[in-house]
Design goal:
The complex is a heterodimer.
Chain A: E1 4-13, H1 17-28, E2 33-36, E3 53-54, H2 63-73, H3 80-99, E4 114-115, E5 125-126, H4 132-147, E6 150-152, E7 155-163, E8 166-174, E9 180-190, H5 211-218, E10 223-224, E11 229-236, H6 246-249, E12 253-255, H7 263-266, H8 276-288, E13 300-303, H9 308-315, H10 317-327, E14 336-345, E15 349-350, E16 356-358, E17 364-370, E18 375-376, H11 389-409, H12 424-435, H13 442-456, H14 463-480, H15 494-518, H16 536-539, E19 541-547, E20 553-559
Parallel strand pairs in A: 1-2, 1-9, 2-6, 9-17, 15-18
Antiparallel strand pairs in A: 3-5, 4-5, 7-8, 8-9, 10-19, 11-14, 12-13, 13-14, 16-17, 19-20
Helix pairs in contact in A: 1-4, 1-11, 2-3, 3-11, 5-15, 13-14, 13-15, 14-15
Chain B: E1 8-15, E2 26-33, H1 40-50, E3 70-73, E4 76-79, E5 91-95, E6 102-104, E7 107-108, H2 110-121, H3 144-154, H4 161-164, H5 167-171, H6 177-189, H7 197-204, H8 218-222, H9 229-246, H10 255-260
Helix pairs in contact in B: 3-6, 6-9, 7-9
Classes of the chains: A alpha/beta, B alpha+beta.
Chain lengths: 572, 264
Amino acid sequence: MSVQIHNYDVVIVGAGLAGLAAARELQRAGKQVAVLTKLHPLRSHSGAAQGGVNAALSEDDDIELHMFDTVKGSDYLADQDAVELMCSKAPETIRWIANAGAAFSRKEDGTIAQRPFGGQSKPRACYAKDRTGLTLLQTIYEQCERENVTFFDEWYVADIVYEDGVVKGAVAYDIRNLEPAIFAAKAVMFATGGYARSFKISSNAHANTGDGLSIVARHGLPLEDMEFVQFHPTGLAGSGILISEAARGEGGRLYNSKGERFMEKYAPEKMELAPRDVVSRAITKEILEGRGVGPNRDAVAIDLTHLGEKIIMERLPELRDLAITFLGQDMIKEPIHIAATAHYSMGGIPVDIDGHVKKSPKEIVRGFYAAGECACVSVHGANRLGANSLLEALFFGRHVGKHIVEDLEAGVFDEPSVSEEDANTMLEEIAFCMNNNGTERVPQLRKELQESMTANAGVFRTEETMLKQREILKELRTRYKNIRIDDKSKIFNTDLQEAIEFGHMLDYSTFIVEGAIARKESRGAHFREDYQKRDDEKFLKHTFATMNEDGSINIEYGDVTLGKFEPQERKY
Amino acid sequence: MSEPKPRKLKINILRYDPHVVGDEPHIDTFEIEEAPGMTLFIVLNDIREHHDASLKFDFVCRAGICGSCGMLINGKPGLACSTLTSKLPEEINLAPLPFFELIGDLSVYNGKWMRGMNERLETWIHHKEKELRSINRIEEPMDPDLAEEIYELDRCIECGCCVAGCGTIQMNENFVGAVGLNKIARYKLDPRDERTDADYYELIGDENGVFGCMTLLGCEDVCPKKLPLQSKIAYLRRQMVKTGLNENVTKCNCLQHEEKMPEH
């Protein structure tokens, strides 16, 4: 099979907010840039974000307060220099995208409207009703179209060319016909999104298989803080489809089967507006202790009826539609059933504040960048606050794009030299999936992975459940070697793609579990029933994990960049 | 009281892979036991996982947000992921969206058509200066009702259902479709866009644009986002007629239209 070789200055993998924001900067600077996505850009998961994007815009808010809320929300694991950069640039980022056409809702005086969100001291989430992500994604995509950015839609990136500490390109195939190509580039940027799809109940799109992370890990590069997976409190019962935090922000009240407003017990001051980790644990505990609602008693109720039809239709129309469609429950008339759902990945590819991928806590990889959910800067630490993810993707996407321009202009890169052989790993992976004549089916393995991750490495974790999960992952890894796929066609072969994606899910799930076993404390979204206290002495540290050939994991720790906010007990 | 017995759904899928020499369009039928809360997304995955792994269809978000899973559901365009089987009869016919390039089975390449349309209609905010400046200034105020009106039209997810449900486009493949006209309506409302009516006339003031629409309004009937396509197309048409009459715009160079151009 001959391998096409394309040459670009920069190749961006992923066409969500972060990837597109970077692409626009690069194109405007006159660089040759290609965006590779396994979807069409508008199908990217950024578009599914609902509730808002944070910025201390109003006069009675300030940037330092946004920083403090973010750091406290992170359970002090966020790097405070990165938080400061993002929060201080938030207002101009919002005004920039508003100027570009984002359809933000407005207040009576015509300024951008803001709503309260969990863990925020002020109403700070700028929103476009309950479809904020969609308008941001559309706006930035349109601006990329305007700049004539080159897109490769429905290309699956399966590998990078990485030699001697330098990334020289991306290796991919065209999903429509399985033709392989190498995209040689002076710089490669990953904006490949999150990894919550390894859980059974998840808010994530089908496409969020975290491929970018394990591609990095397979080259022996580290992943950071992978054990921190955010469980969003309000996923629709059964499916986990997201009901935005706007539902709590606008005044939703949570009740158990006894009709108790149970947040009184868990966060007496902030109640429903406590951060996501706190509320998710409360909901899960109520369910585990038998106070759930619904036919399977696997949910609690969120009541919005007191808001009345007018406010619900004005501010939460899409959420209402979702609940009607998928649950048959109309939030205007009755409480709807929700439960915690795996939602967001705090961990990811370690990067410095300008998006350079790190080889170790102190060294960077040349020619390699990451931004958005796949990256760990870390602005979210152990728990992300609602409406900070769109901000991160938009701000850092653009910021990293500008830095790549600077690095290109400073001439720090050599002309990339690649050869057809650089595609061999991908071609072998494809050949394995296509030709392996085993007895295991990928959908079955994936089901077992997702169910066991939710059961053993979910909202509540213990040594016992996670050691069990370690064994399950080992077993799944062995069984994965014995798969067989049925579709042997070269045209739009989703059977093949899902087999490759499952390999990625297995790899990064191992990082989640090993990071969680090693972290013998509770911090943010990582809650150990056997170590319920935060332990700053031992674990005010970032996890840097690397994978060996046999799939085993090495863990070391790196320092957290502290700043003006001293770690204190986190209460809401 | 015992639970009613679940229905056996009969799913008929129109299948065809244009890339396979000798393949002919044909119907494959699958029987699936209905489960509570089942959507067509779940049905199709069930078929692919347990019956036929080679079935091609698109899906990403599974929540009716991303617009990738448009298909003909019992003859009507709709999103598979937000269609509950309980709302459908036992026998369900699925076919790919017509008009778009067929990848195979239920999968079409609507993104390619959408990109072409976006580029043709320049569906982005036009500023005089290309740089989006003055980022440190307070944003330009906007009336909340106007913001809401823009938002309403901005909700389009480019799923292609309106194009598939459009009679005009079946006869004139250069027609921009309701999706295109909706976008122009959206930018025309937006004070941040500096294009004039004459500029819009250049883009849509002909039979490939707003004057091509035969007002069958299949688009509005099938739009999964329930966009107000009918009123927006009517509004645009009135505006464009006005522009055509009042301004010295000559969109069409053919003799027939030149004669009909009003005198100035």
